[in-house]
Amino acid sequence: MMVFPRLFTVLSVAALSVALVAKRDVAAVVADIATITTQVTNLDNAIQAFPVSGGSLAAALGIHNSATALVTSLNTGTTDAVAAGPFTEEEGTAILASVEAIEPTILSALEGIVAKKPGFQSLPIGGLPALILQDLRNLQTATTAFADALIADSPEDLVERATAIRDGITAAFVPAIAAYSS
């Protein structure tokens, strides 16, 4: 007769634990987006500061290192988003607003990297444009995976808007990758 109350207690604790983990995972996604926002801004600033000619190898490698760190953060964000499961309407709206806020900076960085290609080509190390190309491909893959994970967790009424943002950012990678592929 004591089995039922114990079973109920165990199940209640398990359910509460699952609920707390889900909220923590959403908090992790929000924290990931904050980190990604900072890293995208830093990358864009480094790209904008890089000259079209006369740049330094250190500055170019700094851009590469920033891109690599951003890929790592995007991958972490993807893992956290998958673990979070479905967002509530409020969570999804807040997350979508955060992503919308960094979209112009992402587009600026991609446009800037195309404009700065002559600066990378003029450096004495010949493989730098190929390194930038690899960074762009890695960023595109990581960005798409992160966006897909966020879309999968979004409430149905936000999916169309989130998909449009993903598609716009993904499309912006095409001319940047094409510029460094030739």
From TrEMBL:
CC terms in the record's Gene Ontology section: extracellular region
Keyword Disulfide bond tagged: no
Signal peptide: 1-23
Pfam family, one: HsbA
InterPro entries with a match to the protein in the record: Cell_wall_mannoprotein_1
Keywords from the UniProt entry: Signal
Domain of life according to the entry: Eukaryota
Name of the molecule in the record: Hydrophobic surface binding protein
Organism: Mycena indigotica
